[in-house]
Amino acid sequence: MRKLAFAVTLTTRDEAAPITVGIYRFIGAHISDWNSVMATGVIASLPVAVLLVVAQRYVAAGITSGSVKD
Prior knowledge:
There is one protein chain. The protein has three helices and no strands. The protein is mostly helical.
């Protein structure tokens, strides 16, 4: 919660705001529209999930290759 408070406080332009700040401000403006809030949260998490799947292969390969001694 502290990081969100810093992001909300320190961002002055909407163009440079993180997606979490955008969702927070959207909840404040449209409190009754929870379907849009949840859809935005899912869409915001998709790139992170894809990055996790791609990076997991390389991390696992690096760990296993570095543990074997020649």
